[in-house]
Amino acid sequence: MDVLYKSTRGDGTLITGSQAVLKGLADDGGLYVPNQIPKLDIALEKLADMNYREIAYAVISKFLTDYTEEELKDCIDHAYDSKFDDEEVAPVKKVGDVHFMELFHGSTIAFKDMALSILPYLLTKAAKKNNLENEIVILTATSGDTGKAALAGFANVPGTKIIVFYPKGGVSKIQELQMITQKGDNTFVVGVNGNFDDAQTGVKKMFNDVALKELLDQANYQFSSANSINIGRLVPQVAYYVWAYSRLVKDGTIKAGEKINFVVPTGNFGNILAGYYSKLMGLPVNKLICASNDNKVLFDFFQTGNYNRNREFILTSSPSMDILISSNLERLIYHITGEKEEENIQFMNQLTQEGEYTITEEEKALLADFFGGYADEKENAACIKKTYEDWDYVTDTHTGVANCVYKKYLEETGDKTPTVIVSTASPYKFARSVMTAIDEQYDRKDDFELIADLNQLSKVAIPKAIQEIMDAEIVHNHISDIDKMEDAVKGFLNI
Ligand SMILES: *Cc1c(COP(=O)(O)O)cnc(C)c1O
Fold first, then answer.
1. Which residue's CA is the closest to the ligand 1 atom numbered 11?
2. Which contiguous run of DSSP H or E holds residue 205?
3. What is the DSSP letter of 384?
4. Among 261, 267, 276, which residue's Cα sits nearest to residue 331?
5. Is the CB–ligand 1 distance for residue 154 below 6 Å?
6. Which of 180, 214, 224, 416 is at 20 to 30 A from 35, Cα to Cα?
7. Is this prediction's pTM over 0.90?
């Protein structure tokens, strides 16, 4: 059956999956959602015998129905190949009484790789299908992680170019090195003299600039975006929930059909929403435990039904979760309010104008699949330390939040359902925070010393992504003022 896509703020107009991938955001400002959630049509017993790529195909093909089998398999084979340093792609490891699904074995050692490895292929195939003649230019502003994952995904992909702006001085040393050493003739990285908001605003301005659009078109280029609200990032994420389930069947933790919980360290709500879609597809999921750090907007929302961003923005050691507006939550709101565009638009307008909205009691009752929790900085550090001491297993700070919230969940509910903690980054990516959580003495050392120490302590090999930046050549050294970003783009594209 064909799955089509409509906007959460639209008039019900339907477009194909490949068109939704190309568009990213709908013109009305809404997010694309499937007009029906397809069912998994593989017996759960069978899953245990499938590898990651086979499961990815079984899931993605259900959602993106206008791609042929050959096209999708080609995308999947190019995405989930030896870039991943584990042949299982996303190994699921038993640690004590829980399982950790490690989504950080790709090129940038964070979970964004799971979607950004495949998006370039989905996008270039979509361009062909829809007879776009122009070359696609991905334009992105990044606060650190997304930029590198997008660069790695699009580097050397024929028919694309990628331009990334990051705030000079506003990202970590490791994050900056990761970006400015990026190889590939089609990549361009620019440090901006400004903060992330300045860079983001500059990029948005270029997207909306009609004259620039015409200039690009004359040179056979067009802009596209790789940000996390693209359905082409959401759909591939559904696959690893099914994958995790298959591994628990395989290792005998559960019998096919039994339910499991997932704990997800959450920021923009993209990852956990993919988990919700897996449940709607028929995967036996009990609770989706939504873990927040000190920026606990989502925890409060699940408690009260009031989403309120009017609060202090707190910088934490899990920066990818420092978010007050979780954009993908709009999709959940749309689904639970009966897919009524008008009501959704009203909530989202309230969020823009007043910074908050409140769903009804009946709507809140429909959120029972979720459990919201949070962990503060101290709790997180203690949890990282204890997990290392008890199990010789080192998590990063984001996964630490999830681990910590799971402990609270157990205390509160006593729920014995087998549980998978979704592990979103390698501890190497956040070596300083991780090491000082284990022992404050480490704070005196420099970043590369800490990596060596983490290697000794965790006995986990230093990932290629880290080794590479230790001796890689810096190939991007372009710096731009905020009002010169457009010139930088024109220079790179020679227009
Ligand atoms: C992006 C990110 C998250 C948050 O994921 P969302 O889909 O935005 O909820 C959590 N952990 C890490 C390491 C990330 O990079």
1. 424
2. helix 196-207
3. H
4. 276
5. no
6. 224
7. yes
Provide the token pair at 311: 């609060």
Determine which residue's CA is closest to atom 8 belonging to ligand 1: 268
**Percent of residues in the chain assigned helix, strand, coil, to nearest 5:** 50, 15, 35
Per-residue tokens: 76: 């999947």
Q: How many helices (H) and strands (E) does the chain have?
A: 22, 15
Letter for the amino acid at 292?
S
Q: What is the pLDDT of residue 329?
A: 96
Work out the end-to-end distance of the chain between its first and last CA atoms, rounded to an integer number of angstroms: 44
The share of the chain scoring above pLDDT 70, in percent, equals: 100
Q: Which atom of ligand 1 is nearest to the CA of 396?
A: 13
Query: Tokens representing 256?
Result: 């096919």
**Is there an atom of ligand 1 within 6 Å of 145 CB?**
yes
Which of 400, 393, 394, 395 lies closest to 375 in space, CA to CA?
400
- What's the confidence (pLDDT) of residue 146? 86
Q: Alpha-carbon distance 393 to 389, whole Å?
A: 8
Sign of CA dihedral 79, 82, 88, 94: negative
Query: Which amino acid, one-letter code, is at 212?
Result: L
Residue found by looking up tokens 């039904």 in the block: 305
Q: Give the whole-angstrom CA distance, residue 385 versus residue 400.
A: 10
pLDDT over 80 at 244, yes or no? yes
Report the nearest-CA residue for atom 1 of ligand 1: 320
For every residue of 154-204, DSSP letters joined together read HTT-TTEEEEEEEETTSS-HHHHHHHHT---TTEEEEEEES-HHHHHHHHH
| Shortest-distance atom of ligand 1 to CA 266 | 9
CA distance 209 to 216: 11
- Asked if residue 424 has its Cβ within 6 Å of ligand 1, the reply is yes
- Distance, CA 90 to ligand 1 centroid (Å)? 16
Please indicate whether residue 269, judged by its CB atom, sits closer than 6 Å to ligand 1: yes
Ligand 1 centre from 267 Cα, in Å?
5
Longest Cα separation, the chain:
63
**Taking 80 as the threshold, does the pLDDT of residue 333 lie above it?**
yes
Q: How far apart are the CA of 15 and the centre of ligand 1, in A?
A: 28
Question: Does residue 271 line the site of ligand 1, with CB under 6 A?
Answer: yes
Between the CA of residue 408 and those of 264, 372, 378, 383, what are the distances in Å? 14, 11, 14, 11
Give 47-115 as a 3 state SS string: HCCCCHHHHHHHHHHHHCCCCCHHHHHHHHHHHCCCCCCCCCCCCEEEECCEEEEECCCCCCCECHHHH
For the residues 41-65, what does the mean pLDDT come to?
A: 97
